[in-house]
Amino acid sequence: MLSISCTFIGICLFILGSSGNGLCILVFLRKKFRSRIITPYFIILLFADSIYLLFRLIKLLYYSQTLFKLHTNIEESCSKTFLARLYQHVTQTWPQPFVPLVQSETYMRFSLVLMSIMSIQRTKFITRSIKLLVLPTTFKDTHKYKWTFLLILSAFFIAYTFEFAGLTLFCSKSNNRNITYDWFIYMSKNMENATHILTNKMSNQPHELKCVEYAIHGLQQNQTLFIEQNPICTQDKLIDILSHYFDQHEKPIVNLIQKIIFFQTEHRISRNEIRRKYHFHECLFPQEPNFFHRYYDFMYSRIFGLNRHTLLLGKNYYS
C-alpha cells in the first residue's frame, strides 16, 4: 500500500514539475517559433530538465530510508516501488555508464555548453545575414539548422564525459580500516552521546555488539581498548566489525560520520561527498584505501582534473 502511495505521489510531482516545461515546448512548436534557430536548443533543454526531474524523484524514492527518518516496515518502504527497484537494478548492473546520467552536474554542464554553442551559432548566423543583407527575422535559410543536432549531441557528450570521469575514474577499493578505527576511538573518547548510533545498528548481532560495547567501555573508563589478557574480542575482529558498519551508506551511519568529522575538523561534509570518499568502491581505477584518501583532494581538486569539482560549475557551488 505504501509503495502504491509513493508511486502516485511521485507521478503527481513529476506532472506538476514538468507541466511548465510542456507548456514551453508547445509555445516553441508554434508556427511563429518553429523555424527559429534557437528553438531546437530550448526544446532539448526543456526535455533534459524533465528527464532529470524524473531521475531525481526516482532517487528520492530509492534513498527514502537514508534521507528521511521513516518509522515504517522496511518491507513496505518507498524504495520497494517498481521504479526504485528498476533504478537499483540498473545502478548495480551498469553503475559506471548509468550513474552520470542521474547527476545534476551532467545537465548543468550540458546546459552551459549548449547555450555557449547556441550563442556562437546565432552570432555567426546574424553576421552572415547582415553580410548578405537578409534580415534575421526571415528564417528560411536552409543553412541555419546545419549541424544543429550534431552540436546538441556533442554538447551532451562533453557534459557526460566530464561527469563520467569525475564519478567513475577513481575510488577506494574498500573501506579505509585506519580511518574507521580512528573515528571509533575519537567517538568513544569525545562523543559519548553518539556511540548509541553505532551500537543500535548491531542490536540483532549480539556478538558484534558485545565486542564493540566492550571496546567503548574500555576507552571511556580506562582510555585503552583491551586491558585483559583474554579480551572478549581481538583488535582485528573489532576493526572488521567497524569497517563493515561504517561502510554502510545509511542515514544513521552517514549522520554519525558527519558528526565525527565536524567535531574533528569543524568542517561540514555533505552526504554525497561521504558516499564518494568513503562508501563508493565501483569505479574504473580502484585505488588502495590509504593511497586514495591521501590524494583525494588532488584527484577531486576544483582546479585540476576532469571531475565534478571543475571550475566550470563555479567555485562556490558546493559551499
Automatic annotation (TrEMBL):
UniProtKB keywords: Membrane, Transmembrane, Transmembrane helix
Residues that span the membrane, as ranges: 6-29, 41-62, 147-170
Domain of life assignment: Eukaryota
The protein's name in its UniProt record: Uncharacterized protein
Origin species: Rotaria sordida
Lineage: Eukaryota, Metazoa, Spiralia, Gnathifera, Rotifera
